[in-house]
Amino acid sequence: MKRKFLRLSFFVIYLSFSSHSQSVNWREIYPGVWKGVVGKPDVYNLLNAADVQPSPALQKLQKAAFPLNNTDISVEVKNGKTYLRFPLQRNEQLYGFGLNFQTIHQRGRIMQLHVDHYGKSDNGRTHAPTPFYISSLGYGVFVNSSKYIDVYAGSSVRKDSKNPPEVQDRNTDDSWSAHPYSDAVEMLVPAEGIEMYVFAGPKPVNVIERFNLLSGGGCLPPRWGLGFTQRVNRLYTDAQVKAEAKAFSDKGFPLDFIGLEPGWQSKSYPCTFEWDKTRFPNPEKVVKEMDEVGVKINLWTNPYVSPDAEIYSAIKPFTGSHTVWNGIVPDLSMPEARKILFDQFEKEHVKIGVSGYKIDEVDGYDSYVWPDVATFPSRHTSEQMRQTYGLLVQKYSYEMFRKNNRRTYSLVRGSNAGGSSFPYVIYNDNYSHEEFITALINSGYAGVLWTPEVRASKTSEEWLRRFQTVCFSPMAMINAWASSTQPWTFPEVAEQVKEVAQLRMRMMPYWYSTFAKYHYEGTPPFRGMSLEDGFGSDLTKEKTATNLEENPYEEATSREVKDQYMAGEYLLVAPMFTGQTSRKVILPKGKWYDFYNGNFVGDGQVITITPGLAKIPVFVKEGGIIPLMPPLLHAPKAGEKVDLEIRVYGKKPAVSRLYDDDGETFAYEKDQYSWRDLIVEEKNGVLKGRISEAENGKPNNFGRVKWHFITKSIK
């Protein structure tokens, strides 16, 4: 009996130590940004892996009140796991939880945030499963863990809920629901504590800005990165690469960088990272020749080391227990592994002028990467390595370019929170045009960039529609590694393809300023409509023209909008998909104009458009100021002046900002950049435009300026 009592006493004591709820002591570390730590969090987390300095802009933000009731936040550490609970009101919608491809609204979803290749159900397994969500009420929550996190985003009801749903009888109540109202976001983290952040708004877009600034701000690509890129067939030779670039030039299609696929390496899957001497006998010469004609070279690779690689023996002690495609996996959390791998990259690639990488297979599927039973010499778990490997390859490859004072713009298959300042764009093997747009919208909530690339098409219509979309995305790219397609593959739409590619180049001053705002202010360059002022419950219902319809969406939270998005400060993009001849566009409150002709189209209404095949529908908000340059075949080089055409939309005075630096180096980090005001003023009843002078000693790469007041009369 005594022994039984002792066992029972021990069990009670064990429970008291292994299960306890803790209050969170939130500390405001920047204006509108609070940090809370509970228990004993893992030392290795997402922000530690990314290892970036928060942007100085955080200190300049306005103070804000803590946006949640702290007493409604529950944290419990139990049996080596941490249980989180955040309050959720009835009128909230949730956004975020990573780079999702099918859903924008995340309320009611159950997910496990887990780095993986594209999945079919938005279950949390994706290329960038960022553990960050944004509320439509204007706050955000970030859980800084490199573990797989289970999320119940308003999908479950506790018996002790302060806001229990009404109990209904399905037999008699037609309004009975299988998913009763839930008043909480709950998460389970397999760790003995957690580090968390809460972000204030007041608007949802301000929440995302603070989150991105905490991660160092958004990336600032080189100008050439915002031009056009062609990824060539996987087995092209140097002669074929040069011929491809010449064909672009001869036909008048812009081209800024060419991507070489696996065949540039002596062996791949696994990789040697060394040039194949039969296809590229003198790589330094061809890289230099291409650079002289304005075309950079980008290299495909994955990080898994072939037994035939020069670095194999040296790096082997610093690799994981399992292989990927028979290649050893460098433990990139270890400085020894990083030095060996990236010294090789620098010597073989960066030093001869290679501009960047396409880093493949750092995401999943489970059967393609190391298993969760793998071990690594750093003693970080395989789970932690899986969640952070994309961050690590971005960070340490990017540092090579920083060391050589040359900016890069590259591609990667996996990322996570903390990586917004890395100049990498995510891509994958999915090829649904519609889901490309959903992912582009979600990238703005996740703190990453995503490209809806063009590969192949069944018809000329599909080809053109896809091409139009990529020219209004972070990276305008054809990926012809398997198909060998070119912009003119469908001759019947070749001129329209050329026109939209030239428009991409003409808009480079706008795109470059948009990315500068991403870098300095954290504003996502491409983002969902829910982040736009005047979109949602305050949409008007008036009908002012025959093509304007009553808006059926009374609440922004009631229906997802997955087929239109904002590009930069002023542009609303509404892509057309194959087979569509017309579509509806939801205009936020305020006057909106057709991008191409300046005609007024509506104010806070749903319009139906029939745009034809030649152009992607784009609309500009009142006061939009869009700087354009001539349609060059290559991005301007450092010090090259370009003339500007500045388009003005609307009938009111307005101000915008135009960014400038050398476009190639990191001199902007040493104050070698300028913001110039684009000012529209009314003088004697007439709108006039002027541009502020560049400061002495600051970059000034603009020549003549022509103002174009494009808006026609308003009916």
pLDDT average, as an integer? 93
Strand order of the largest sheet: 1-4-5-12-11-7-8
Determine the number of helices (DSSP H or I, runs of at least 4 residues). 12
Helix and strand composition category = alpha+beta
How far apart lie the N and C ends? 92 Å
Hey, roughly how much beta strand do the residues contain?
15-25%
Give the C-alpha Rg. Answer: 26 Å
The level of helicity is: 10-25%
Largest sheet: 7 strands, mixed
Shape verdict = globular
Got a strand count?
A: 37
Q: Low-confidence runs (pLDDT<50, min 5 residues)?
A: 1-19, 537-557
Pfam families: DUF5110, Gal_mutarotas_2, Glyco_hydro_31_2nd, Glyco_hydro_31_3rd
InterPro entries: DUF5110, Gal_mutarotase_sf_dom, GH, Glyco_hydro_31_C, Glyco_hydro_31_N_dom, Glyco_hydro_31_TIM, Glyco_hydro_b, Glycosyl_Hydrolase_31
Keywords: Glycosidase, Hydrolase, Signal
Organism: Dyadobacter subterraneus
What does this structure look like?
This protein has 715 residues and is an alpha+beta fold. The protein has 12 helices and 37 strands. Strands 1-4-5-12-11-7-8 form a 7-stranded mixed beta sheet. The chain has a 7-stranded parallel beta sheet with strand order 21-20-19-16-15-14-22. The radius of gyration is 26 Å and the shape is globular. Mean pLDDT is 93; it is low at 1-19 and 537-557. Residues 554-626 form the Glycosyl hydrolase family 31 C-terminal domain. Residues 157-178 are annotated as: Disordered. It holds the Pfam family Glyco_hydro_31_2nd. Residues 644-696 form the DUF5110 domain.
